[in-house]
Write a structure and sequence with these properties.
One of its GO terms (molecular function) is small GTPase binding. This protein has six domains: 118 residues, no CATH class; 144 residues; 101 residues; 156 residues, Leucine-rich Repeat Variant (Alpha Horseshoe); 215 residues, Alpha Horseshoe (Leucine-rich Repeat Variant), CATH 1.25.10; 95 residues. Helix content is 72%, strand content 2%. A three-stranded antiparallel β-sheet has the order 1-3-2, covered by helices on one side. The longest helix is centred in the C-terminal third of the chain and has 32 residues. The chain starts with a helix and ends with a helix.
Length: 1099
């Protein structure tokens, strides 16, 4: 009786949970959650198996039971006695033997599968063998309904066989194979495709499994094609996309059928757009994940695909209001033209320009001459879309492309003019700065002409946006030629649109013109001074008065504009307005906190940082007022959630959420609103620390506590990068707080930074982390790393170096792959470059340790030295040899004579490296010879003598001063200098000096030039007869050398060697006639350079 009463009460709870009244539902949820878990399980099972009960209530019970198993199984199940566990398993299995509707059965399968998932432990032991038996029984039964249920459950938990899977592999394959060709039921075939796909996805990297299941692929594609013809449920096409994403090579044998099926869907006029999009997505995904395979096996289909994509791009609304609207209404992401444009961009990036550009180029001319504006629009948007992927091929064709595009700035249809602006703006970015250098004479006047289009604000604003892209990357000397013309136009528009805002409330073009002015100022720098006084009053007025909600964006952009103008014209000019502008900006926050989504916030935060750069230390007075909002924005914690597929479908309609699938029904979601602003705020904190130094010391502790945890903020690369960049700056700021404070900060930073280096998923961000660590070590100096930390760091470097060699082997294997082609080679070379960069960062960290710990670091270096010995082997790639030599250069430079313990490893590679074919290797080897001369001591005198003829040969090579070779050559000249000056016991200095003098001047490598000119000064100051020549006849040549060095800025003015050079010139100046002879033999540039140095007061 009691049980029946409980069940009745529970029935009432279920009814309330289904209520449309929020309050009733909330109360029911509370009552439901207050029940003990085991009671809920029992009551829910009773409802599900109670056939007379309402369908809606039984379905609700299955949903609740699955959720309960998903979230609470591990808490309640182990606590119930074994016989209750057995009973539960039996009852859950019996759900599927109860009479059910299709919908209820589907949900019941999910309940059983969820329980099965929970009964496999981490070692793969399945503690529910009855389920596996049941699965095979269902699959082999004569009932299509039971077969379908078995396949559904297997698709939901494809790993259900755990560590028994290998024994059952034949049975699994047989079950799936029979189901795929089951002639009695389409539903069984349909579910079989889902099951195979789930199984392959679970084993996406396991080639053996792919090979074993390969023969199932043909029937899979047949069933998918069948589902396309039925046009009812698109989930099999989605499965195909998942396979294309995760296991594209598995699809190889059926690539033809896949291409044909997808092209058929795309060219079928009666097919719904969503199906066309899925077919297109399948082909685009394959082109991204297995481009070489598509190029090799399916190249013949690309000429059929591109016209279909371009055709989708012509599907635009004929809305006469579009170009006169004052609001930018973004196209729907699901619309044909947006989907197709994105697909074209991805196809170009995936398959490469050689494959895609010829197809685009052959289709575009007829579209551009089509009387229907939609075709002209699509053609221009296509040019914008393929620039990134077809970069190399398009670059050579830009003149012809631009001849076409520029005409359409005058097209009769506003949206075509808009598309022409779009293409120009995109190419300005994609092909910068060569685009700006080649086309400024046509592009700037063209865009200024479209900026006059007052009748069509959307077009007018887009011309302004294209001018932003153009001026951002335009070399300053080019933009300055047009500055008066550009600014006359922009000031006129600013004035007219300001009046329009007051009269009509329209603001779109005004917002854009403010941004365009900011961009022009940013590039023009001090040349913008001429427009400052006219512009600033109007901009300040906008900041002061644009206070309503709809004007927030305008105010934000004006704030950005004012701060960029300030940065351009410099402190002196901006100073008069700085206080007033800061007060205006601070007033925004004084009136109450801005909400996180207020567009002004990010503009304000960036503007404060720019003004800080302009004012320097004087900004400190504002710091207490601005730090709060910046810290708050940087501290933003995004909303995250774990959701199953159903929950995800409910929220993923908007752009606000992004999801990562964790497999088996689980998805990790993050709400992306505000994350960009968070990244920007983190960057600004770095700016403050850099600009204010010790003035930021009081904030070092709270900022470091904010930044260190953000090294693990995996939702945004920029946040982690800013966190890493901030650390050395913060340590530098905190030095004034004393060593105890500083050490406390470092104790907090160091372990977390080391962890971040090891676990960082993005190579570029890891480089930032490593650079940050190197800077921190250099900032803090000796003693900052104790033995434990050093060993941990060396362990991580050891892992990174092992991975480096593993990746090199992987690339060798990829070069043997069946789909290997020249475009794959280009990608492998890019990977080589990334690896090369990683080695550079490892070298940075080691450099910091050698600089700090000198010879004491040797015992730690020994833990990884074997990698560097391998790297300098003659059989290694040049980049390995280069970085290996750089590290041994540090071993010598900072370890001094003690480096002799490693000489058996580095001597031959350094000497032979001087004659290497690769310039970077020669430079590292030449530097090594020089540092051996200075730091190695007398033990290396013979090595220095042996290196001399090789160094001379490099310097005397006819090509030694070419752009590629000049740095290695100057390092070689510097190395000879160091040998002559510091390690000359085994050579005849007098014999070499005339050659040495003939190799001067040097100017390119400003690190090495002071050694060379310092030695020259020493020889002149000690009256060396070989250098001065008989009767001092070489003096004009020596003065010319010094003048050339100053003309080419070879020596920083503040370097003591520059002062010695100037004093030598002054001495000769005092001799009257001789000096006039010297001057008369100089070029005009050398004369000016010498005059500047002699008349400069700090000399």
């Amino acid at each position: 009786v009691n049980m029946a009463a409980d069940q009745e009460r529970f029935h009432q709870i279920l009814i309330s949970l289904l209520s449309s009244d929020n309050e009733i539902r909330t109360q029911a949820e509370k009552t439901y959650n207050d029940l003990p878990t085991e009671t809920r399980v029992l009551l829910l099972l009773n409802v599900i198996q109670n056939v007379p009960q309402r369908e809606e209530e039984r379905q609700m019970a299955t949903v609740l039971l699955r959720r309960l198993f998903s979230s609470e199984f591990s808490e309640f199940y182990p606590k119930i006695p074994p016989e209750s566990q057995q009973e539960l398993k039996r009852r859950v299995l019996s759900i599927l033997q109860t009479e059910q509707s299709d919908n209820l059965r589907r949900k019941s399968c999910e309940v059983v599968a969820e329980m099965a998932r929970n009964l496999i432990d981490e070692e793969g032991n399945n503690s529910w063998p009855e389920f596996l038996e049941f699965l095979f029984q269902c699959a082999n039964s004569n009932s299509p309904i039971l077969k379908e249920s078995a396949l559904r459950m297997f698709a939901s938990v494809p790993g259900v066989f755990g560590n028994q899977q290998i024994q059952h592999l034949d049975l699994i394959k047989q079950m799936l194979q029979q189901s795929l060709v089951d002639s009695t039921s389409y539903n069984v075939r349909f579910q079989a495709v889902k099951a195979v796909c789930a199984f392959i996805m679970l084993h996406e990297k396991e080639d053996q499994i792919h090979k074993f299941f390969k023969e199932l692929l043909a029937p899979i594609i047949q069933v998918i094609a069948e589902s396309v013809d039925k046009n009812e449920d698109d989930s099999l096409l989605k499965c195909l996309i998942d396979l294309a994403e995760s296991a594209p090579k598995f699809l190889r044998s059926q690539l033809d059928s896949i291409m044909q099926m997808c092209l058929k869907v795309m060219s079928n006029e009666d097919m719904e757009n969503s199906w066309k999009h899925l077919a297109l997505e399948t082909l685009v995904t394959l082109s991204e994940t297995a481009p070489a395979m598509v190029r090799k096996e399916a190249n013949q289909y690309i000429p059929l695909l591109i016209p279909l994509v371009l055709n989708l791009m012509t599907d635009l609304d004929d809305n006469p209001e579009w170009s006169v609207s004052d609001e930018i209404i973004e196209d729907d992401n699901e619309s044909n033209n947006v989907v197709a444009e994105s697909a074209l961009d991805r196809l170009a990036c995936g398959l490469g320009g050689k494959t895609i550009l010829p197809q685009v180029i052959s289709n575009i001319p007829p579209m551009l001459s089509n009387p229907n504006w939609k075709y002209r629009h699509a053609a221009l948007m296509a040019i914008s879309a393929v620039g990134e992927g077809c970069f190399k091929q398009m670059e050579t064709m830009l003149p012809q492309i631009m001849d076409g595009v520029l005409n359409y700035l005058q097209d009769q249809h506003p949206r075509v003019r808009y598309a022409a602006c779009n293409a120009i703006g995109q190419m300005s970015t994609d092909f910068a700065p060569s685009f700006e250098k080649k086309f400024h004479t046509k592009v700037i006047p063209g865009l200024l002409m479209v900026l006059e289009d007052d009748q069509n604000p959307r077009v007018q604003a887009h011309a302004g946006a294209a001018l932003v892209n153009f001026s951002e990357d335009c070399p300053k000397p080019i933009l300055i030629q047009y500055l008066d013309e550009i600014m006359a136009k922009l000031e006129a528009i600013l004035s007219a649109k300001f009046n329009e805002l007051v009269e009509k409330g329209t603001k779109l073009v005004l917002e854009q013109v403010v941004t365009t002015i900011a961009s022009v100022a940013d590039t023009s720098e001090e040349q913008f001074m001429a427009y400052y006084d006219r512009l600033m009053p109007c901009l300040k007025y906008i900041i002061q008065n644009a206070n309503t909600a709809e004007l927030k964006m305008l105010r934000g952009k004006t704030i950005e504009c004012v701060s960029l103008i300030g940065l351009a014209v410099g402190r002196e000019k901006f100073m008069r307005d700085a206080t007033e502008i800061m007060d205006l900006l601070l007033k925004t926050h004084a009136e109450g906190e801005l909400p996180d989504d207020d567009p002004q916030t990010s503009y304000l935060i960036s503007a404060w940082a720019r003004i800080c750069k302009i004012l320097g230390k004087q900004f400190q007075q504002y710091l207490p007022l601005v730090i709060g909002p910046v810290m708050r924005m940087a501290s933003l914690k995004p909303e995250v959630a774990l959701m199953d597929n159903e929950d995800m479908d409910e929220v993923s309609g908007g752009d606000e959420w992004q999801f990562v699938s964790l497999g088996e029904q689980q998805n990790f979601g993050i709400r992306t609103a505000g994350i960009e602003d968070k990244a920007s705020a983190c960057d600004m904190l770095v700016c403050y620390a850099l600009a204010l130094k010790e003035g930021f010391a009081d904030y070092a502790e709270p900022v470091v506590k904010l930044m260190v945890p953000m090294l693990k903020f995996y939702f945004h690369d920029g946040v982690r990068t800013a966190a890493a960049q901030s650390l050395p700056c913060l340590l530098d700021c905190a030095k004034v707080k004393g060593t105890t404070f500083l050490q406390g900060m470092w104790d907090y930073i160091c372990p977390e930074l080391l962890k971040a280096i090891e676990t960082e998923p993005e190579t570029d961000v890891r480089h930032e982390h490593m650079f940050s660590l190197a800077k921190c070590i250099e900032t803090l100096g000796k003693g900052c790393m104790n033995e434990e930390l050093l060993k941990e760091l060396l362990r991580i470097l050891d892992v990174l170096l092992k991975q480096h060699f593993e990746r090199a082997t992987e690339r060798l294997n990829k070069r043997k792959d069946e789909d290997y082609d020249e475009i794959v080679e280009e990608q492998l070379e890019d990977e080589d470059n990334d690896d090369n960069y990683t080695l550079g960062k490892i070298a940075d960290v080691l450099h910091a340790l050698f600089v700090t710990y000198k010879e004491e670091f040797y015992s730690y270096f020994d833990l990884i030295v074997v990698h560097f010995i391998k790297m300098i082997g003659s059989d290694q790639p040049w980049s390995d040899r280069q970085w290996g030599l750089c590290v041994f250069d540090d071993v010598i430079e900072f370890g001094g004579p003690a480096c002799v313990k490693y000489q058996q490893y580095f001597l031959r590679p350094i000497i032979e490296g001087v004659s290497d074919k690769n310039a970077a290797v020669r430079q590292a080897a030449a530097y090594g010879c020089g540092t051996l001369a200075i730091n190695g001591g007398p033990a290396f005198a013979a090595t220095c003598a042996e290196a001399l003829p090789r160094l001379a040969e490099m310097i005397n090579d006819p090509e030694s001063r070419s752009e590629e070779n000049i740095n290695p050559t100057e390092n070689a000249i510097s190395a000879v200098t160091k040998i002559l000056q510091h390690n000359n016991s085994n050579i005849n200095v007098d014999e070499i000096l005339p050659h040495w003098l003939s190799w001067l001047p040097v100017w390119e490598d400003t690190d090495e030039a002071p050694y060379v000119y310092g030695y020259l000064c020493h020889l002149i100051e000690t009256n060396n007869s070989i250098i001065l020549g008989p009767n001092s006849s070489n003096i004009p040549r020596l003065i010319a050398l010094i003048a050339e060095a100053f003309y080419r800025d070879a020596i920083p003015v503040e370097n003591p060697v520059a002062l010695r050079m100037t004093n030598i010139v002054r001495q000769i100046q005092g001799s009257g006639e001789m000096f006039q002879i010297c001057i008369s033999q100089l070029t005009s540039e050398q004369q000016v350079a010498l005059h500047d140095v002699l008349s400069s007061p700090n000399k």
